[in-house]
Amino acid sequence: YLETIADNLDSFDARWHKPIEQMRSQSQRMENIVRDLLVLSSIETRAAPRAQEKVDLGELAREIEAHTQEIMQEKQHRFLIECPEEIILLGQRSELYSALSNLVINAAKYTPAKGTIQFRATLDPKGVTIAVEDNGLGIESHHIPRLTERFYRVDPSRSAESGGTGLGLAIVKHILARHDSELDIESTPRKGSIFSCHIPKERVLS
Ligand code: ADP
After folding, report:
1. Rounded to the nearest whole angstrom, what is the distance from the C-alpha of residue 159 to the centroid of ligand 1?
2. N or C end of the chain: smaller count of CB under 10 Å?
3. What is the pLDDT of residue 40?
4. pLDDT band at residue 81 using 50, 70 and 90 as cut-offs
5. In angstroms, rounded to a whole number, what is the distance separating the alpha carbons of residues 123 and 83?
6. What is the residue with the minimal CA distance to atom 8 of ligand 1?
7. 86-124: pLDDT as tens digits
């Protein structure tokens, strides 16, 4: 109902426009929080499936690029992918998509307009490093150890504005743990951040 009402604002007295818009955006926020909590609880309670899928990393990166086009265009960001062909990961495709797209969306959200977001994969003898780098707001070092806690935010007002739930990085951390990996965060305030992980060679076919 709220969406229909918001789409027909002209039928309502002008003094209702702001409250209606706020009701709509708050209910959207609530929906996002419920969705992320359900994702988190399903990852926490379900054992990691034994059957591993073969996940083409370059293809996954291009899918993330296609699905984040709207926010990239809106903010006039450049999105660059650097990924050797034929890196195949063993894992859960939907989970890896969720983790890596979360990092790309955060990079886009927390980078002022006309930024550069890079998705990089580099092979080494011990596996593959996947990094998402931005030249955005950056994060003060004392926040970094707490970023993967549920609902932890550096700047609650700014994250709420951007539609975040504060659960994204908690989800990323759990998914990476299920892929024998962990999240590494390097950041410099006002310069940018690199969120990366190293997937061990046992999970890499190339
Ligand atoms: P949110 O839904 O608030 O984005 P996340 O768990 O995804 O929650 O991220 C937690 C907090 O980490 C964010 O509120 C933001 O302050 C900070 N953060 C995440 N990614 C970045 C980034 N690329 N640059 C700067 N800050 C970031």
Report:
1. 7
2. N
3. 93
4. very high
5. 9
6. 166
7. 899 999 999 999 999 999 999 999 999 999 999 999 999
User: Closest ligand 1 atom to the C-alpha of 136?
Assistant: 24
- Residue 129 phi, psi (nearest 5): -100, 130
- What span, in angstroms and rounded, lies between the C-alpha atoms of 179 and 86? 19
Contact 69, 155 (CB under 8 A): no
Query: β-strands 78-82, 53-56: how paired?
Result: unpaired
What is the percent of the chain where pLDDT is above 90?
85
- Strand intervals (E) in the chain: 53-56, 78-82, 88-91, 116-124, 127-134, 184-188, 192-200, 204-205
DSSP state for residue 129 in the 8-state scheme: E
Question: What atom of ligand 1 comes closest to residue 169's alpha carbon?
Answer: 6
Of residues 43, 91, 65, 73, the one with CA closest to residue 204: 91
